[in-house]
Amino acid sequence: MFSLVRENIRIAIDSIKSQLLRTILTVLIIAIGITALVGILSAISALENTISSDFSSMGANTFNIQRNEFEVQRRGGERQKQNPVITYADAKEFTEKYQFPLSTISLVFTGTNAAEIKYENKKTDPDVPVLGVNENYIQNSGLKVELGRGINFFDVENNNNVCIIGKDLQKKLFGELYPINKTISVRGVKFKVIGVLESKKTGLGSNEDYRVMIPIQKARSIFTNANINYGLSVKIEKKELLENAQEEAIITFRKIRKLNPIEENNFAIENSTDLINRVGSITQYLYMAAWIISIITIFGSSIALMNIMLVSVTERTREIGVRKALGAKRATIAVQFFVETIIVGQLGGVLGIILGLLIGLGVSSAAGFTFTTPWLAMFSAFAITFLVAILSGLLPAMKASKLDPVESLRYE
Q1: Which residue has the higher pLDDT, 73 or 249?
Q2: Which of 235, 266, 297 is the last residue before a domain boundary?
Q3: Distance separating alpha carbons of residues 230 and 252, to the nearest angstrom
Q4: Is position 15 within any domain?
Q5: CB of 160 closer than 8 Å to CB of 215
Q6: SS3 state of residue 244
Q7: pLDDT in tens, 123-139
């Protein structure tokens, strides 16, 4: 039994070698479909991992109070009505009235996204975000200070001219110089650098390493734009208290907004878990689209493989006749073509997986995503190529096994 299987495998390999160009083309046809599957799924997986990682950095026991929800839905083709901005008065009143145990509140607003930062004779393009923050912002946002220290309570209360800068901004302005206690200029105001943040690449088109943070009161004296929107973040020391803390925050902020019991919230509360779940629901549709595109491509590959194997059966009619004349059974002939189809299919699958991983890795590197090995896509690719090989080889194998040996020997 095993010797017969080995013999069929040897014959199949010899046949593949004898038609090398055809085999290469067939393998490439299958590889294209598998490459589409693995490449698209790995890129989507990298995107999902990056977004989830960024949101998780908020901390599992942190939630934000913000103007609108993360995803602004469309109703009837029109954009959903925007909520009122969270004013400084709203934010300040919340920090005073919210008394939930073991909670820490951070406050932030974006003064500008287009500041020019100067240090001696060096300056940046006017594209640096400047944030006004309180002493709790860095901790609540999952950021870490690499050099120096963070902004503290006294910096905020005394309107100290101090700042923290991102890693990329440090490299841009100071190069190899030690940045702590150096003085930079923001809109003509001098600030002493007291800290540099650890690198935090988001991979989502924004660079959080290229920004400046200054005490919120000092920021309010510099940036006096109308309708400035403030962000609040609440960190709870014990994760099991998070739900109760959010409910208390909603009640407190509704009172600040003077909403009656039947009115809906005109603000949003988000935590990292909510955001990750929303990202998961969005990427589900991307996965579905990827599977549909890949299956259509693989379906075309299976038809091509079946057609090539049918041509191979026709060309090898005389060979089949000789084998049958020498005593080969129908099952033996069928297995021979099955083995040949499976080998070609798996070669295409392996090549497709390698190319798909390279494409996924390339897209992830170019976009700054966090690439992880897509094991599910790889196992699916192996299973699909095996199934495609069986389905594509079924008809040619049956056709070969049913050939009449006498007629086959007469075939020219």
Answers
A1: 249
A2: 266
A3: 16
A4: yes
A5: yes
A6: helix
A7: 888 889 999 999 999 88
